Each structure stands twice: as C-alpha cells, then as structure tokens.
Amino acid sequence: MMKKQLKKVLVLGSGALKIGQAGEFDYSGSQALKALREEGISSVLINPNVATIQTSEGIADKVYFLPVTPFFVTEIIKKERPDGIMLAWGGQTGLNVGTELYLNGVLKEYGVDVLGTSVEAIMNTEDRDLFVKELNKVDLKVPVSHACENMEEAVAAARNIGYPIMIRSAYALGGLGSGVCKTEEEFKEIAESAFTFAPQVLVEESLKGWKEIEFECIRDANDRCFTVASMENFDPLGIHTGESIVVAPTCSLTDEQVKMLQDIAVKCVRHLNIVGECNIQYAFNAETNDYRIIEINARLSRSSALASKATGYPLAFVAAKIALGYTLDQIGEMGTPNSAYVAPSLDYMICKIPRWDLTKFAGVSRKIGSSMKSVGEIMSIGRSFEEMLQKGLRMIGQGMHGFVGNDHTKFNNLDEELSNPTDLRIFAIAQALEEGYTIERIEELTKIDPWFIERMKNIVDYKHKLSEYNTLEEIPAEVLREAKVLGFSDFQIGRFVLKTQNTNMEKEVLAVRAQRKKLNILPAVKRIPTVASEHPDLTNYLYMTYAVEGYDINYYKNEKSVIVLGSGAYRIGSSVEFDWCSVNAINTARKLGYKSIMINYNPETVSTDYDMCDRLYFDELSFERVLDVIDLESPRGVIVSVGGQIPNNLAMKLHRQSVPILGTSPVNIDRAENRGKFSAMLDKLGIDQPKWSALTSMEDVQKFIDEVGYPVLVRPSYVLSGAAMNVCHDDDELRRFLEAASEVSKEYPVVISQFMTETNEIEFDGVAQNGEIVEYGISEHVEYAGVHSGDATMTFPAQQISFATARQIKKISRAIAKELNISGPFNIQYLAKGRDVKVIECNLRASRSFPFVSKVLKRNFIETATRIMLDAPYQKPDKSAFDIDRMGVKASQFSFARLQNADPVLGVDMSSTGEVGCMGDTFEEALLNSLIATGYKIPSKDKGIMLSSGGAKEKASLLDAAQALVKNGYTIYATAGTAKFLNENNVKATAVGWPDEDHKDLPNVMQMIADHKFDLIVNIPKNHTKRELTNGYRIRRGAIDHNIPLITNARLASAFIEAFCTLSQDQLQIKSWQEYE
After folding, report:
1. Residue 524: CB partners within 8 Å, gap ≥ 6?
2. Strands (E), 300-375
3. Which of 100, 175, 229, 1007 would you call most buried, defined as having the most Cβ atoms within 10 angstroms of its Cβ?
4. Counting beta carbons within 10 angstroms of the beta carbon of residue 258, is it exposed (0 to 12), middle (13 to 18) or buried (19 or more)?
C-alpha cells in the first residue's frame, strides 16, 4: 500500500508567522502529522515557532525548535536519518529549504525520499521560465512574461511588452517585491528592490481589472484528479489574493465558464504531474472567455486552508495520505459524503475577508495592491452574499457593525477611494450606494462585478426600509426576519430603528433580541458534511443562518458541556499563541469527559479543525451570537480567558445576562482591566506603580506633566497590544498625539503615565486557584522597557534580575492573585530598576507568552488552568519544577519588508507579526537559535558591520560589543560621531558619510548598502522627533529594502554580537525538545 516501508519522516514547519505566511501552516502541518500518527510512522518536526499547536506534546514524536534553514535541516537529517521528508506543508519556507537540499544533493546522500509532489514538479511551478515552457507544451495560456537576471534585461523586456507592466520576483512569498508600474521610472524603482529578494525578476503584461479565479485541485497516483473548491476574488486582478475579499463557490461566472476553467485546471495538474494538492490561479475575462494561468502553488497554501474549512474537505490531510501512497478511494468511506473520492457540493456560501493593521506603522500607505500586507483573515458562512458579507465585516474586529451603520467611517473623495483601493474600500462602496451612485458607475470605478454590487445595494436599500420604523413593536415580523436573512445584527437593527445616540447600545441590542424571540425569529443551526473525519456521524461542523429554520443536530439539556471562546482573526497583538491556548483548553475539557464546544471563525487555525472538538460553531464571537449558542447548549460554563482580548471583553456583558463564566469572576476581570479600579487596588495593597492620571482636559494634562516631567506614556483606556499608545518627549509631540488619540474611545478619558527609562521589564505568567498561585514563570525582556512586550526579545527563566527582585515579584504576584481571587490563567507585567519594582498591568487571561513558558518548563499552564476552572484534580508541581537548567529565548518576527516605507523602529506600539522560541543550554545558544530563526544571519568576516548609535549612552553601551567584533576579526564601519567615539576608545572603525552628505573622501552609507557591503546594520535612533525622512530612517529602510539584517536596539545588538562572537553556527547543538531534561 505504502511506497516503501517508511519508519521515520521529517516534516518541515514554516517558522514564525509573517505577512504572507501565517497560521494556515500550523493547520496544514498538524494535519500532516496527524496522518503520520495514524499510520504509526515516527515523525520529526523542525519548527522554531513555539506558539503553534504542531510543536506541542502528542502531535509529533520529536520536535526541534531550530531555524528552518538548509544548515539546521541538514544537521537534523544527519542525526535523525529519516526515510522521507514532507516539504509542502511548511509554506514557502519549507519548500525553498527542501528545494535547496534536493539541489545540493543532501537528500540523495542520506537517502531521504521527498513525499508527495516531486521536487522537479515543484521547480516547474516555482521557476517562472520552466513553468511557461511546460504550459506552452500543452497550449495553455500564461501572461506574456520575461524572466530577467539584471536591470538592462528588465528594462528592455518592459519596453517590449509595453506599459503598464507587472513586475514580481521569482521564488517569493505573497507577492514580495512586486507591483504594477505605469512608467519606466516607477518600474526601475520596484525592480531594484525585487532583485534584492530574488536573483530573478519577472516582467509581464498587466491584466489589471480582469477577474481573479482560484481552484484547489487534488490528484492521486491513480490519476484521479478534480477540483475541490472554486473561489472567486471579489476584487479584480491587480489586488493580491491575500488582500482580496474571496467568495466560494464562484458567484458571477456561468456554469459553462466554471466547467471550462475546471477542465483546464485538471489538464494542467496532470501535465505537471502534481501528486497531492495544488492551487491554481487564473486571470479571467468574462466577456471574451479569455484566460491566463497566473500561477500554480504545488504546496498547501493560505487558500487551501480556506478551501478546507469552506468545503469540509481537509486538503492538507488528504494530501498527506496521498503522499504516503494512498489513493483517493481509500480515504474516507466510499459511497458516503465522508469519502475523499468526490468533491463536496455546497448548499451554502463562504467569504473570506482580510484583516489589516496598517495604522500601526508610521509612513505606510493604506493602498492595497499586488503585494500582500494583511496580517490575518476571517471566513464567514451564510446562505446569501448579503448575510455572509455583513457577518464577515463584523468578524474582522475593527469596530464595524456590518456593511452599513458604521457612522464613524466617512470618505471625502469617493471616486479616488473607489478607483485606488485602500483597506477600507468596501465601506466606500457602502457610502457610494448611500449617495446614489449607480451600479454601473461603481463597476466602472472598481472593476468589481455588478453581481456583487447589486447585492450590496440590497443591504443599503433594506437599511432605509428599517429606518422608516421608530419602535421595535411596529416592525412587522416578516420585515424583521428579512433583515436577519440579509445579515443585519440586532445592533444594526437597534441603531436604524431606535436611532439612539452616544450609547454603547447594550440595552437596545437586548431589546431587539427580546422582540425577535417573542416573534420566534431564531437562527437555524446547519451542519456541514465533512470528508475523512475520524467519526463522521459525530463530527459537528456548524454555522448559523436565518435563511432556513430548524436544527441539524439535537440539543439535550443538562449535558456536561463547556464552551470555549476562540480568538478570532489573527492581528498584530493576537495570533497563533491564543489558538494554542484555545486548543489546549478544549483538549483538556474533552479529556475530563466534557462535551467541548468551540466558537471561532478563523480559517487558518487548528482550533477550527472540526476534529478538535465535539461541536464547532464556525460563527461570530459577538455578544448576540454567543448568546444564541448558549441558549441552545445551556453549558456548564464558558471559558473566556484563553482567546485573548475578544472573549475577555465579552465577560462582563455575558455575566450581566447570568451566563456562568468559568474561572476568575468577571467582576474581578473588570477590576484588573479598568485602570482606575486596578490602580486603587494596588494603592490599597501598598504596591508601587508608575505615577499616572486619567485626564479629560489639556489644562489637567499640563498640570500632571509639570509634576512628573517628560517622557510620558499616553494611552486610551481599553486596549490590546498597545493600540494608540505613544511615548511623548516634549509638549509638541504630546499635543500632536492627543489630537490623534481623542477619537480612540468616547467613554474613556486619556491616561498619561510617567515613562521610565533604562528599566528592566519582567513578565510573570501564572495559574492560580481561588487566589493561590499554583504554577508560574518569570521571564525578562532583553530590551529595556519601552519596547512593547510583544516585540521584545524574552528570556526564560529570567537571568539578569537579582534574587531580591525575584522574591519581591513573587510576593506582589501572590498579593494580587489573592486580592482578585484568581482562578485560572493570568499575567502581570513589572518594571524593575535597582531596588524598585513597579506593576504596569495585570491581565486575567492567558498571555502571549503562555505557550513559550509552558514549553520551556515542560508544564502545560493551560491544561492546569482548565482543570482548575472545571474543578478537576491537577498535578501540583514541587518547588524544583521551576528550577531548570535549559534556557529559552523568544524572539519576534517583523514583516517590515512587506510594508513599503514603514520605519522599522520598535516602540510601545506592537509591530511584530509573529515569534519564535528556541532553546539552548546557555543564553547565547538560545539567543542565536532564535535570532537566526527570525531571519538574522551570523555576519561573514568578508563583509562589514555598520554601527550608528544614537546618543552618548547608547554609544557607551555598545562599546563592549564593538571591542568583541574587532577582536574576532570583523570590520566596523560607523557614521561620523560613532566612528570618532570608537576610535578614541581604541576600537578601529572606518567612518562613512551620512545619506545626505556628499564627501569626496568618505563613501556614502546608502551606496554601501546598495552594494551589499554590510552583513549587519545596527542603527539606534537618536531622538524621537517627528521621524521625518531623516538620515536614520533612510539607513534603516535601506537595510530592510536590501534585505540586510537590522537591529535598532542597543541591548539586543550587544547580546547578539556577544553571542556570535562566543559561538559559531557549527557550535550550536542539534538538540530536540525531548532531549532537554
């Protein structure tokens, strides 16, 4: 049955989450490992991303938290001697590393078989020239395209095809280094950047404005081949599919058109000899039926995770089974809907909407185009486009109430907004329809198919219909029902009918709900049939809709059930780590014999895999929808502490409706979340905190500042990941920021607190039972306070703090846990300087560092917390459990390369998109592993290291590191002031000119960056003035655009330099998680 007796298989993970490659690979990798486990094959996983489910106990037999690079993978192959390797489940990272090991002969030398699609076939899809040659053999159309190796070739090719021109770099992820250019000048600029990411650049005809259609295909060794899902981009070509709203199945094409594209897809997959899963993207002109095949991904992708959740057909799992030698007729039971032999047919629709966080980056354009910038996505399920669009826009979690009713979003120049889209374009369409634009006019400006625009107009028309009523009682039942069918939430209905101003609408929402129940207008619960699931009749993959009535499953009262609220769309500040927490909570509840119920709507995740829980509601995490589920399920309780901030914010509202919340009481959650209440509590307990004040007028602000002095930290009340926080250094900056902050939150004033410099930041992650701490972990940031804890490099166990500080932290944590009577997970952030320890904040939920601390300690904090919340017995650790010899370092992954013009500087606002966590026997080893895993490399001695370090303090703090560099044979280049300082201190440094200087005798730093003369650039910003296009910014951005490792923090730079001067890459141990005792 299987190809050859496979005893051991190596699976490549995708590393840290970044823009273009996120949680979908935790899902696909977990599915592959599940398939291996079912076959009894021993699995070895390499993935430094400590926050993922796939790197948890019981998924792979061995886990290496090491960088997914050719060097480390080769070392693991030498040590583990696997029989086979899976490359297609770890994103572009896994694919690129696997391809390199195939080309340099490592796989052959150690006898490792590539499972699934062969590397030759992968190269035929990845290398543009080969791809075009292959498709030409079978007369399939691709865009006119030239692969160019240098600038002259590229310019000539562009002239030959004619502008506008599409440009992209080969072998790159999510359209990195790509763009549509209208002029030669623009073309040269983008081409220069594209060449730094890949040796080959593609210059092709622009098909901007055509439809973009995608299919997911599956094929086995018997040549059974078909398309599993057809998806249509709501946005026309020219907007990257990761930036686009996507619907499935296709909406605006005729059956004949779909059939034609399906046939081409099958022909193409067969010709390329792809075994397993692949994704094919078309540009399609519906008027002429002309098409181009844009690209084929012979790996699992973001779209394949979406298609799996959209259809109930688990592509990654089926592809893994095919890779192990199964054929489709052997997967699932033939002749039942559970068989993988036929494509599922859908009686519902789904739509995917991206989530952007562009406002977190200074200088980034909000325009969307051919390069991906979104950080997460949601999927909504419904019976009509109107319903799923409105549901989806609420799910993104950016304060929108649906397609209409978002009074705070207004555009002054609609035509511009419609023809040059930004992340808010969908709301511009709503405004245009409100202002009476015709469907034809909108189509002309946006190139969006009228099929979609007509349906969006239905929503706007119905809003006007609802507005004709002034009380809930006068709305006829059929009107209320139709509003629900069109996806209107109780909130929207309340707002349009009751027209109340300036309230949080909680009362109104409940009034609409009561009226709706009185008229018996309730959502139906529909079950989606699933393929290849473990127990088909017990698999409950559910969604709610108003288009039909009734329930597909039975509800019984008094069952032992527990609801876990998931974390919604990935965003900056909340991503896979909360998915890890949710999945562990569900697993623990299941182990304890509870019926586990999950509510979440993120298609990338493992928590929305329908085999993970007893009932999965793939639906909104809104107050309204959670109550709908609770009404039907009557659970023993709801867990709100494992899904980040979204469930946490629902705690009080649910509590007021007498919903049983498990763990810490919502009243206490509010005491920790509400700054005033929390601060008063700390004062009562005699615990120190930075001076702060909540202020409502500029006079009060001035008074407070005269008292504490600059710098100060300014922030609004309820936040996640430092949204809209800022450090201000002078009156000017403060005034500018307050003008921006006033729109953050009407109900809450602005909070200003003293900002402490040169202070250590320490995290306390813990689990408590009835106010007694049961387990805990103390970790510290490498950087001083002032870098957001989600961006900082974290060390666990803490190394630098004194015993006195550690004792004080434990003592304060115990006092807080007792006062808030905590049961379950919590996290407290501390500042420590000298003998002072101050508390910054306390979250009564799992924090971002829970998976990291749990895996380094080898104690699952979430399992303990869930057992406590369910009053179940748990294992109490003895004191020695916290005394470990290994070290863990968690480092952040930034995606600045994707965000054109963003200033890559770290501050109090979080900007990282992911993280890794690696281990070592020493701090240096763990730090090098984790920094290499986020893309740093140990500099080569043939290239220089560039230092430009801000003020006098920073210069002094880098001195030791600079001495180590020279001693180890590195060449240091530095800007004028830094060079002078180093040379005066007997560290040889060569001066270079600032970007805006024109010296005859000094080389300009920008020229040296462009010539790739450096392997590391350390640039410490001097002052925080209005970050104009200053010299420092140009150096930092130059490093990013030329793909040169950049560090902007003196403490991290010193640690990294001292680490690679102590250890070389060859000296790093190849040690699995299981081997750390």
Report:
1. 544, 545, 546, 547, 548, 549, 550, 551
2. 349-355
3. 229
4. middle
Alpha carbon distance, N-terminus to C-terminus of the chain:
38
Confidence of residue 200 (pLDDT cuts 50, 70, 90): confident
Q: Is the pLDDT of residue 745 over 50?
A: no
What is the average pLDDT value for the chain, to the nearest integer? Answer: 91
| Residue 20 confidence (pLDDT) above 90 | no
pLDDT at 1021: 84
Q: What is d(CA 262, CA 217) in angstroms, rounded to the nearest whole number?
A: 9
pLDDT value for 173: 56
Where is 526: in which H helix or E strand?
A: strand 524-527
Q: What's the CA gap between 609 and 514, in Å, rounded? A: 33
Q: Starting at the edge strand that comes first in sequence, how are the strands of the sheet with 540-545 ordered?
A: 524-527, 540-545, 615-617, 595-599, 561-565, 637-639
State the pLDDT at residue 748. 55
Q: Residue 41 corresponds to which tokens in the numbers above?
A: 């094959």
> Given a cut of 60, is residue 2 above it in pLDDT?
no
Q: How many residues does the chain have?
A: 1077
868 φ/ψ angles, rounded to the nearest 5 degrees = -65, -45
Does residue 676 sit in helix, strand or coil? Answer: helix
User: By C-alpha distance, which of 170, 173, 175 is closest to 195?
Assistant: 170
Q: How far apart are CA 280 and CA 297, in angstroms?
A: 7
Residue 855 · residue 1073 · CB < 8 Å: yes
Phi/psi for 675 (5° steps) reads: -55, -40
Q: How far is CA 620 from the centre of its chain?
A: 19
The DSSP call for residue 587 is H
- Tell whether the torsion through CA atoms of 640, 641, 647 and 648 is positive or negative: positive
pLDDT for 895-923, tens place per residue?
998 888 888 988 888 899 999 999 999 99
Q: Tokens 């007369």 appear where?
A: 139
Residue 1026 C-alpha from the chain's centroid = 29
Q: Which residues 6+ apart lie within 8 Å of 648 measured at CB?
A: 640, 641, 669, 673, 843, 844, 845
Host H or E run for residue 542: strand 540-545
Contact 968, 1061 (CB under 8 A): yes
* Adjacency order of strands within the sheet including 1014-1020: 990-992, 971-975, 944-949, 1014-1020, 1046-1047
| Least confident piece of the model among 69-73, 239-243, 521-525 | 239-243
Cα–Cα dist 250/254, whole Å: 9
Q: What is the CA radius of gyration of the chain?
A: 28
Residue with token string 């407070």:
704
Rounded distance between C-alpha atoms, residue 55 and residue 69, angstroms = 17
d(CA 813, CA 416): 53
Instruction: Tell me the per-residue pLDDT of 840-867, one tens digit each, with 9 for 90 and over.
Output: 999 999 999 999 999 999 999 999 999 9
Using CA atoms, how far apart are residues 205 and 913, in angstroms rounded to an integer? Answer: 33
Q: Which helix (H) or strand (E) holds 732?
A: helix 731-741
Q: What is the pLDDT of residues 755-774, one digit of tens each?
A: 888 899 999 999 999 999 99
Dmax over Cα atoms in the chain, in whole Å? 86
| Whether the predicted pLDDT of 1027 surpasses 50 | no
Identify which of 577, 395, 397 has the alpha carbon closest to the alpha carbon of residue 22. Answer: 577
Token output for 257: 């058109």
Q: Is 76 helix (H, G, I), strand (E, B) or coil?
A: helix
User: Which tens digit of pLDDT belongs to each residue from 160-191?
Assistant: 888 888 888 766 655 666 788 888 988 888 88
Tokens of 556: 């019984």
Whether the bond into 873 is cis, omega within 30 of 0: no
What is the reported pLDDT for 177? 67
Task: Evaluate if residue 1 carries a pLDDT over 60.
Answer: no
